[in-house]
Structure formats: structure tokens, C-alpha cells
Specification:
CATH class of the largest domain: Alpha Beta
Shape: globular
Largest sheet: 7 strands, mixed
Structural class: alpha/beta
Distance between the termini: 30 Å
Number of strands: 12
CATH topology of the largest domain: Aspartate Aminotransferase, domain 2
Strand order of the largest sheet: 1-7-6-5-4-2-3
Order of helices and strands: HHHEHEHEHEHEEEHEEHHEEHHHEHH
Radius of gyration: 22 Å
Amino acid sequence: MKHSDVTDERTAMEKPEEIRMVDLRGQYLRLRDDIGRGWDAVMESCRFINGPEVSELESALARFTGARHVVACGNGTDALRIALTALDLRPGDEVIVPAFAYAACAEVVCMAGLVPVPADVDAATFNLTPESAERVISPRTRVLMPVHLFGQPCDMEGIMELARRYGLKVIEDNAQSLGARCPHRDGSAPFAGTVGTIGCTSFFPTKNLGCYGDGGAMFTDDDGLARRIRMIANHGQEEKYTHRIVGCNSRLDTLQAVVLNVKLPHLPAWNEARRRAAAKYSALLGETEGITLPKAAPGADHVWHQYTLRVAGGERDRLRQWLASRGIPTMIYYPRPLHLQKAYRSRMRLGCVPEVAERLCGEVLSLPMHTELTDSQIEYIGSSINEFFAGSPHRHDSMGAAAVTVGSPT
């Protein structure tokens, strides 16, 4: 919609029911009885740690994704950290991470005594590409860590070809794209998180598949790595009080496993609901001047963990205030690239200046995206954005008193 096409009806559209960045309550109300029964059973058994529901979840995730092994753990960051530990790397080894991503990928690399090397990302998909990763490979590079950002998988076929050419391991950060597939040229389409050496995911409450606390899991087809991962997550032991390697304590609570067991069968339908919401956003905003819509790569399978605009001309923060004044929450994922974060700057090797990542941090704005979004809510959000760019005479007065709404973290 062009500025001149904004109609009086759309400009005057009334605000629908409360709009949330993520509506966890609405989803819970539909599942409350099943979750309650599962929790009651755990309370009766008092098997709060390593109850049978945890192994049931691991088996269910293996069947769903086709992964040979799934190991649940305490959270997504632990999953990445355990994956790095399982590869038996040496201090000073380098791990390539995207410069535009949540801090966890750089954090775990530093905590393991390794060197994060930020690579630039693609401006259209926001993802690490084989080409950007290859530009920063050095003789010390040991691992590629692609992050499947905002619900869209990276080009895993290209990344695996690059890894084979240079003899590298691949750890997939699949915290935001569980249930998305990675189309290959041979017609196969494995799930994101199951292509690399080890895949990692998070069950943080706002994820496409989220529990009601922290949780995570690791996926691998390597029998030896699976055994080592499970040992590391359990204090380095296979038998109680027999510690074969140095490990940590990272376990998924049984109560959280109950929630995930109830939710997992709904994930395909929920991802499809996100696709429908994204398509409606794109239809409403497809001709709006001043913004760039998120795009799925050709043939890609996007599950829309976030619907993230790029707002040009320094208007991003003004648009955010305008939307907040109309009761529409938004989030900026992410306001600063990893190579400019104080915690990591001195620990990184900067093989190139990630110019695209820096530009994205000043332009991105994520709109509400969840399974409970209604058509009327999406239409109201779309009309409000179009009204902003049409230059409503009330815009500047409204923005002055606007308080920016903070949504849920990644």
C-alpha cells in the first residue's frame, strides 16, 4: 500500500482486543487440562528430575525430527555449551558465528576458552551464508555455528559442503526454527537442527515450541557424540558416582517435559498458523514505502518465530514509538551486533567488518507474532504502520507521550 492509498476507513480502524508480542496465556488455556493432568501425575510420583516424561520427550523429538539421538538439557545456552565441550576442542580454536544473533552463541564460545569469529549475514534473510563464513575461515577454524534466525534455516547444504571442504564441525543453533525444513538439491528436506554435527534448540517459553521455564535439547546422528553429550550433561557420569569426564549439571525438569510432550503434536499446526500470519502481514505491507519485508530464501521453509521488518531512513525508533502509542508492542532483535558488544570485542578475531549486521541493527523491528494472533489484530497493526508512513497529522503528537512496550526476550 502506497502512502496515497491509505483510506479513511483503514486510518480510523479501531483497536481490537489487547495485542501481545507473544500470547502464552491464550495458548495455555487451550492446553490447560492436558498439562494439568500431566503435572498431577508428576506430583504424585515425585519424580521431578529425570522422570519418565523426559525420556518420552526425547523419543518423541527423535521421531518428529528423524534425529538418531536427542538429549534434553537445562536450556538452549547449555545445549550450545555442551555441544562445544563434546567436540573436545583446544583453547584458542576458532568458532565462526553470525555477527547478527543473540549473544549466547558468542558467550558459550568464550566460556569454553575458544575464539568467536563473527561473520557477516545476508541482508534479506538475516542468516549466515556459506560465502560469508568462508571469508573469515583461518587455519585455526574448527567449528561453524550457523544460527537459524527468526524461523528460517540457513543454507545448510552449502554450509555442510563448506565444512567438508575445510574439515570443520557444524553446530546448529536451532533455538528459533524447530520444525522448519532445509530443502536440498536431491529433493530431501531434513529438519533444521538435524543436518550438522550437533543441533541445539531452546524451549524458552516464547519459542515455537516452548515450556514454562527453561529447557533445551541436543540432536545428533553420531552414536559416540550422543553418549558423550549425555555424560557431559550429567556431571560426566554414565553410572552414578562414576565420573569418566568433566561435565556439568544440565537437566530438563520433568514438569517441563510434560508441557513439551503436550505441545509437540501441535507444533506443525502452530507453525502453519505463523505462516498464515506472516502472509497476511506481507499482503498488508507489501507496497508500503519506507520498509523492507522479511523474505524467505527461494525454496526455504520458514516457521516465522519473528516477523521482522527493516525500516529505512532512521525512522525505526519513531515507528516503534508510534505503534506503542496505539497499543502495539514491538521488539528490536538485535540492537547491537556481537562484534560491538563490550563483553566479546577483546575475545574475538575480527576477520572482516560485518557491515550488513551493523546496518541491520539500526533498521530491524519485529512485530507481534504468535499462534493466537487474529486477523483483526494483524489488520490493525498493518493499518497503523501504513498510517505512519502516510504522514498522519496526529502522528507526532501521539509519539511524544508514547511509552515503548517491551516484549519477551529471545
